[in-house]
Structures are given as structure tokens and as C-alpha cells.
Amino acid sequence: MEKYYEYLARNINYPIEAQKKYVSGRVIVQFIVEPDGSLTEFKVLRGLGYGLEEEAVRVLKKSPKWVPGIQNYKPVRVLYTMPIHFGLQ
To answer: Which of 38, 68, 77, 84 is most deeply packed, by most CB within 10 A?
Structure first.
């Protein structure tokens, strides 16, 4: 997960409107990790507005494939929930 958070930090573009309004916090996104490792069915469970939800989903959609869940030695779909932190320095 550490490498994945590094990926997020390198690839997230903080929306200008959110920067202007000094909006920070966590966006919670739920998605499915498919048997091939791709991510699908994105759903924002908690957002902050100002384009932060869209940016969180955008960067997850472009992410490298994940390692899928395994059940009975076969890859399976897994529901995953991830908080993505947006903070201004």
C-alpha cells in the first residue's frame, strides 16, 4: 500500500477551485478490484466538493493494476474502500 500511496501523491492534481477555497480532507472511494487486477465500479462514499471527488476517481482509473483477491486458488472480484487525503501545505 505504501507504493500505491506514493503513486497517488505523484499523480493527483489538486483542483484549482479547491486550492482557492483552502479545501482539504479525505475523499472516500469504493471500487471493485476485478480478477485481472483492473479497478471498476467507482462510487464516492464521502466527498468534499470542488472537484476533489472527480480527481480521486480519475487517478484511481489511471492506476496500475492491483493484485486481485484469491479464493480457492482463483482470482476473484473484491470490494475495496480507500480514503484519499487532500491537503494543502
So the answer is: 84
